[in-house]
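Lab notebook, bench 4. Still working through the backlog of constructs that have no structural model yet. Next entry is a single chain of 467 residues. Request: give me the structure tokens for it.
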Amino acid sequence: MDLYWHRRDLRGTDNRGLARAASLSTEPIVPVFVFDPTVLEHASPIRVACLLEALEGLRAWYRERGSDLLAVRGEASDVIPQLAAEYDAETVVWATDYSGLAHERDRAVTAALEDDGVTCESVHDSIHHEPGSITPNEGEHYSIFSYFWKKWRDREKREPVEPLAADALADVTGDPLPSLSALGFDEPSSTPPSVTQAAAREHVTEFCSGPIYRYADDRDKPAVDGTSRLSVHLKWGTIGIREVYEATERAATRATTDDDRESVSAFQRQLAWREFYAHVLEFNPETVTENFSGYEHDIPWRNDPEELAAWKAGETGYPIVDAGMRQLQAEGWMHNRVRMLVASFLTKDLLIDWREGYDWFRAKLADHETANDVGGWQWAGSTGTDAQPYFRVFNPMKQGREYDPDADYIREYIPELEGVPADAIHDWHELESARRTSLAPSYPEPIVDHGERRERAIAAFEQARGE
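Model written out:
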């Protein structure tokens, strides 16, 4: 029997790696997952909770077909060769992951398997176009998204992969999955989303039946349920990217107006952003901790610990910023427009290093993906590819008024502002202290003055640029 090693592709359908394993083997496939302590060092309670639910769903899928998922604990470079020896495997296949940590792990596993005479193969599965397949005339990857998008949009996409027949899977029985506590994690402080193959398909069907046609207008309104909520499923691979894209193409054929078709395209553009950042990380793994774009001098980050603590707690006195940070604490998710706002506030208003924000998001987000989060944080911090210019600083009051005009989103996550008029919420920074106290005595005063901090941030970046 040969092995298929699941990592972040926790599904049986539209799985190119699993299909490749079956095509290479004349023997039934043994599905495997490894709880690798080196990988778990970088995990968090909410992400491990999501992982365990996704694994339970995958295990049920295999059991329905007379097989099972073997979930083992240990360094992958030790346990994968041990399993290969136990099942007399000639081949081990897995899906490619794009991060420095993943590549280090995979090199170690490959070396150990090759020492034992076992063939191994890594298959691109989580994105349409693997790194190195969409390139500029010079260089390994695009650093400007608009150029990448034009090629990505026009490049032919693969069709979804059919699931394996039951007789292609080995008749094996796995041990129960470990608990959160057994893996060394506390219960998450937020409520994890449902992360299963069924939930993913339900999200796709619901989104593509209506909301996708309003996506261009609704995607920036945090009080409106206008996004796909697929990020956590793409992160854990409970649905394949080809299945998602095919659903959007079907939606495009059903569109009745140019606006509808443009809205579908706007969503597909977000799928392309995800791949853009995967390509960037593949060729620049150091950007997890280092700025992509260099400055002549170091950026003079302030890194005030009290201001960082207020930002994390949603206690900055800037309502839409605080609503986003509290949504993160409650749900392990944050609306994308608000992610940009809170990131701008941290890196510009508070002049705190983007890496502090990235570390907090990595700890709290159920949908944390290294490539996306590094790319997003460096964009906000004006240090990344195609980044927000350093002199463009989001005004949190203007953004709140524009994207949450009735303050419905803000009030949902900041109960202290229940009953406060929307105009007062959006003008919170300008109200007299006594007025703020009378309206919401338990909600904090603004911890900084946005106008002053904006000027200071611009000056700091100009200093780093040598101007």
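Notes after review: The two ends are 64 Å apart (CA to CA). Residues 258-283 form the longest helix (26 residues). Flag for follow-up if needed.
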